Task: inverse folding
């Protein structure tokens, strides 16, 4: 069973941060190529300072990034920049984005706390292997803060849930923002606190299996490892203890906004195989189109 629950989310206080575009960021593993500096410059409260903080202080001293994230989180809560919901909620994130042909798509995600289950149970399915090294910083941050700062992006079979959420989306004006790096994507966000809607959504999700991790394998496996640690430390903890759950964004496989777009991969200066061999082997699985050079490409 896919057991989801509402939770008391921590969100930016829009009385203090009216423009949410200045405080959001890409996921931690995409904060690179100078993006960290740009996020830092946007706001002293940009979430990149929590999820991908600088490893040195202003005087060049190496700092414990996870411990500083906890200090900043507590300070922002004390200052009222962040605040926690006064009651459990589900959330809806709608992303509107253009395609290369000029059309516009909208994709809706249900954000909830999902009960963690190992992959062998078949409720949640992975599609890639993970690297232990990539989990080190994530589990340090989770141990220090006990907070999920980003979602695991999951796909669930069949539809029906978006329809349950539509009345809330129609009745409530959303928060709206555009992120610095992907500023062509309009993000809209709703809070769902109606007990009847929450009950209907959790009931509709419960019998589903084979939820596929589209992105966030390291985040999910980090939460599994953290749960194991916490269960050893707190063997009498209740089943609904926070460490038994993970923040996820659930998108229906029937959502018309669920599209797969092409990406580019570059192989350069690889000495183990020649370019000619790469093309020959790739031709077994792909259509290969030679071009004259980088400029032509």
Result:
């Amino acid at each position: 069973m896919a057991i989801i629950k509402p939770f008391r989310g921590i969100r930016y206080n829009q009385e203090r941060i009216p423009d949410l575009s200045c405080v959001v960021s890409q996921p931690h593993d995409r904060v690179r190529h100078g993006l960290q500096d740009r996020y830092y410059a946007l706001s002293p409260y940009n979430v990149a300072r929590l999820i991908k903080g600088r490893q040195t202080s202003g005087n060049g001293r190496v700092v414990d990034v996870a411990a500083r994230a906890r200090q900043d989180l507590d300070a922002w809560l004390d200052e009222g920049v962040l605040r926690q919901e006064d009651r459990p909620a589900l959330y809806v994130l709608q992303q509107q984005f253009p395609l290369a042909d000029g059309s516009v798509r909208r994709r809706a995600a249900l954000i909830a706390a999902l009960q963690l289950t190992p992959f062998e149970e078949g409720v949640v399915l992975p599609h890639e292997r993970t690297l232990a090294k990539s989990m080190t910083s994530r589990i340090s941050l989770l141990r220090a803060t006990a907070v999920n700062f980003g979602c695991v992006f999951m796909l669930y079979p069949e539809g029906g849930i978006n329809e349950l959420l539509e009345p809330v989306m129609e009745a409530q004006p959303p928060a709206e923002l555009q992120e610095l790096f992907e500023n062509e994507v309009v993000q809209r966000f709703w809070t769902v606190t109606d007990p009847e809607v929450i009950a209907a959504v959790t009931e509709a999700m419960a019998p589903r299996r084979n939820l596929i991790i589209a992105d966030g394998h390291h985040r999910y496996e980090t939460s599994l490892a953290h749960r194991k640690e916490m269960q050893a430390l707190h063997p009498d903890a209740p089943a609904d203890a926070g460490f038994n759950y993970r923040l996820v964004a659930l998108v229906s496989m029937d959502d018309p906004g669920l599209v797969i777009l092409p990406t580019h991969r570059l192989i350069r200066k690889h000495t183990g195989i020649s370019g000619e061999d790469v093309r020959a082997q790739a031709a077994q699985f792909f259509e290969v189109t030679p071009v004259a050079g980088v400029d032509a490409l």
